[in-house]
Amino acid sequence: MAQSMLLYWSSGSPPCWRVKIALEEKQLQGYKHKLLSFDKNEHKCEEVKALNPRVQVPTFKHGDIVVNESFAACLYLESAFKSQGTRLIPDDPAEQALVYQRMFETNNLQQKMYDVAFYEWHVPEGERHESALKRNKESLIAELKLWDGYLEEMGKGSYLAGKNFTMADVVCFPVIVFFPRLHCPPERCPRLMEYYKMLKDRPSIKASWPPHWLEKPEGQDMLKNL
Amino acid sequence: MAQSMLLYWSSGSPPCWRVKIALEEKQLQGYKHKLLSFDKNEHKCEEVKALNPRVQVPTFKHGDIVVNESFAACLYLESAFKSQGTRLIPDDPAEQALVYQRMFETNNLQQKMYDVAFYEWHVPEGERHESALKRNKESLIAELKLWDGYLEEMGKGSYLAGKNFTMADVVCFPVIVFFPRLHCPPERCPRLMEYYKMLKDRPSIKASWPPHWLEKPEGQDMLKNL
Question: Where is the GST C-terminal domain (chains A, B) (predicted)?
């Protein structure tokens, strides 16, 4: 099945990374893929455009089925290969509800992380304000506290939605990884840092680690002053 | 089952509305609910806080299960009541992929609509820029064109993900409705306007129509100059 899959992706993009983790967890190694450089604007290529009117990565194709939104691709893969590899969405209603809840809360963490770490990248110079960045930082600090509290409450060694690795981890880990990488002070989220250490060597995550991070293990320090 | 459900919600909030539509479609009428006023800040109450650390609506409880993110609540309801009411996520892999794809693309449309219609509400006065609002408008116009194209391609009378009403419609209709309501020029998205007219009297949507919109059928004109 994996041979009929094609993923266009970029190194270090959380949406791309989550699709790659899902593919690994569902034992779909061997899928075709094409690494495109953001810096060289390669993701704006004709091949991507033909499959994705947003001209973004990830762009993912399985046979004739095209599904590009990262959450959509992950849910599709879980559904299409339910009994293969890791079960990422549990059947038990209470467990399932928590997986969904944490999955979608991830959008908050991702946006707030971007709003601080990539503020200068997203906001043109003449539109930047110290007051906005200060507000963004406060909001991110509160968000981290929330996630750290979730892990604290669930106890040592827990994944984001309980005792098992689930789709919540698939979608959120590629965001969480930016906190240690961009030098966030560990005291802002000690439980998340433990969680990061617990997951970073998981086979699906190791196999999909951004190649340009392997070349440059030390990230920039955009979250140093959080 | 519906008697063991409790929804805290606000009138006119797209995330709240989508949970209400899902409840109607899954034949879960009779759920308990509490309407909270944004204007009076009622959604910041202790009852909500006890169930939702983000202190937001929707806040949704089914027995002991709490699931507050609107997409999470909708997916949970579909899964827990799969064979009851309207089937919102089809089994066919290609159909399912498209439903997921449009569901998650909704976040783009919603954010871009907010970034124009509620720009002054979200951005403090000293941080507003004509250049940003202009960029937001261009981005929203392009986004509308994309959705209009999807409907155009699928043909007259089509729902967002094909011939049937699905979860894509549940999550996206409460965003699309803002375009006619806030006086968006119909020529910006003629197919979406037809889609709106086709859906506005659907029983699940009519039953969950924001009560303060019934009192004031004429909305403000924040999208008039799009």
Answer: 92-226
Nearest to B69 among A79, A104, A131 (CB): A104
Task: Give the DSSP letter string of B51-73.
Answer: H-TT--S-EEEETTEE--SHHHH
Determine whether the interchain pair A103/B64 forms a contact, defined as Cβ–Cβ distance below 8 Å.
Answer: no
> What is the rounded CA–CA span in Å between residue B21 and residue B204?
5
How far is B14 from B111, CA to CA, in rounded Å? 11
- The structure tokens listed for B53 are 């650390």
**Cβ of A124 and B131 within 8 Å?**
yes
CB contact under 8 A, A53 and B149: yes
Region at B157 (left for phi over 0; alpha for psi -120 to 50; beta for the rest): left
Q: How many CB atoms lie within 10 A of CB A97?
A: 26
Four-residue CA torsion sign, B128, B132, B138, B141: negative
pLDDT of residue B43: 86
- The two tokens of residue A6 are 């094609």
Chain A's closest residue to B71, CA to CA, is: A104
User: In this predicted structure, what is the pLDDT of residue B38?
Assistant: 87
Fold of A2-80: Glutaredoxin (3.40.30)
CA distance A93 to chain B (A): 7
Give the best residue of B65, B79, B101 to mutate against chain A (max A CB count within 10 A).
B101
Tell me if A66 and B124 make a contact (CB, 8 A cut-off).
no
- pLDDT exceeds cutoff 90 at A105: yes
* Residues of chain A contacting residue B146, judged by C-beta atoms under 8 Å apart: 53-54
Residue A43: its pLDDT value, please? 86
> Each residue of A198-213: pLDDT tens digit?
999 999 999 999 999 9
Residue of A nearest to B53 (CA): A146
Q: Which residue type does A106 have?
A: T
Q: What is the pLDDT of residue A91?
A: 96
Digit-coded pLDDT (tens) for B33-69: 999 998 888 988 999 999 999 999 999 999 999 999 9
Q: B127, A129: Cβ pair inside 8 Å?
A: yes
Number of cross-chain residue pairs from A and B with Cβ atoms under 8 Å apart: 93
CA dist B174 → A176, B6, B15, B111, B178 (Å): 31, 20, 8, 13, 7
Q: Which CATH number applies to A93-215?
A: 1.20.1050.10
ipTM for the complex shown:
0.97
Average pLDDT value over all residues in chain B: 97
> Residue ranges per domain, chain B?
2-80, 93-215
Residues of A in contact with B80 (CB under 8 A): 93
Pairing of strands A59-62, A65-66: antiparallel
